[in-house]
Amino acid sequence: MALLVLSIFLAMSLGLSTILLFQYKEVKEMGDSVKAFYAADTGIEEVLYRDKKCYEPGCASLPWECVDTAECSQGIKAGSFSKSFGASSPSYEVLFNNGAWNVHSKGSYEKASRAVHISR
Description:
The chain has 120 residues and is α+β, with helices and mostly antiparallel strands. The protein has one domain. The protein is 44% helix and 24% strand. The protein has one helix at 2-54; strands at residues 79-84, 91-97, 102-109, 112-119. The protein has a four-stranded antiparallel β-sheet. It is rod-shaped and about 85 Å long. The model has no long low-confidence stretch (mean pLDDT 81).
């Protein structure tokens, strides 16, 4: 009788620990997903900032020169860039076409990746 009770408790505890371990992994990946989303959002914000700054005089002196400095008052043209914040930190890749009118940003962190796309 004691052996039967112990085996039931063992089966219950193993089943419960499996469920808890799976839930722990899910919660961790959810946190990674949020960081990846915010990295993608940062890429979008950087394109919008670059576009805004490119309308200003003296754009050619900025590190992301416009395609043609004579057309600098028309905003950024097209291109891509990426940024990583160090080992095991979020990173993002941005592709933009027609300036800030069509932007696709992909953020990554650990195994998670999320993308944000804007168009006007």
